Amino acid sequence: ETLRAMPLLPETDIILIDSWENIWGHYKAIAEKSATLTALALDDFGSLQDTSRRKIDRAPRTFQEERAGKGADEAIRQSLMLGERRMQIQQWGELWIALEAFLYEVLKLPYSLKLVTVLEGKAKSPRTGEDHIYPDLQGAVRQSLLARFGLVAESFISYDREDKAHFCLHSRPHPRIETKDRYGPGRTWANPTAEKIIQHLGRGGQAETEQEKRI
């Protein structure tokens, strides 16, 4: 009887994007699943940027490298290991266009809910010189990605007086963390469920608990 009362787990498919050469094949697989699945999670977008950058980093850039063909692979690898191979403005542009094109097509897919996660990284603000928490992305996509979403939350672990850990999300305005909440004034969730977040997006979410107000 207990098993019968438990809700069935939804079907979950995991697609590992480990090669930019196959990115549109992965996109096709993701698109086909939109007919049977309701939610899509891209976890994490920073790793996707690293995957696309590997293709650019290892591509021949000069006439000599083009002529060397496979013989240039070892020289390129050594250059990367020594940190001598720098991304040029042209390569940064190629990377930005590639990521924008892929994300644009994915967000057009008819999933009811789309979630994109990005790890956080610390960097100095160019205006104040103070350390800020930014999405762990490089180049223009750091700003353009946030603009596409109505809710941008920061995650952290909070400990209560009994030293019990709580996984938290918050969308409150913060001077050193880029967050955004178009669905309300911003709030904190302690140990949130997907249901709570979806209710918030539908503007029918519950008010903060006393514990969440204290965090």
The structure class reads alpha+beta
Q: Using DSSP, what is the number of strands?
A: 9
Strand arrangement within the widest β-sheet reads 6-7-9
Q: How would you classify the quaternary structure?
A: single chain
Question: Which runs of at least 5 residues are low in confidence (pLDDT < 50)?
Answer: 1-8
Mean pLDDT: 82
Shape: globular
Order of helices and strands: HHEHHHHEEEHEEEEEHH
Put simply, the count of helices is 9
Q: Please give the largest β-sheet.
A: 3 strands, antiparallel
Distance between the termini: 39 Å
Description:
The protein has 215 residues and is an alpha+beta fold. 39% of the residues lie in helices and 18% in strands. The strands form 4 sheets. A 3-stranded antiparallel beta sheet has the order 6-7-9. A two-stranded parallel ribbon has the order 1-2. A hairpin with a 6-residue loop joins strand 3 (120-124) and strand 4 (131-135). Residues 1-8 have low confidence and may be disordered.
Topology readout:
Layout: H1 2-5, H2 23-33, E1 39-43, H3 45-57, H4 63-68, H5 72-81, H6 89-107, E2 113-117, E3 120-124, E4 131-135, H7 141-147, E5 151-152, E6 154-159, E7 165-170, E8 180-181, E9 188-190, H8 194-201, H9 210-214
Parallel strand pairs: 1-2
Antiparallel strand pairs: 3-4, 5-8, 6-7, 7-9
Summarize the structure.
This protein has helices at residues 2-5, 23-33, 45-57, 63-68, 72-81, 89-107, 141-147, 194-201, 210-214, and strands at residues 39-43, 113-117, 120-124, 131-135, 151-152, 154-159, 165-170, 180-181, 188-190. It is an alpha+beta fold and 215 residues long.
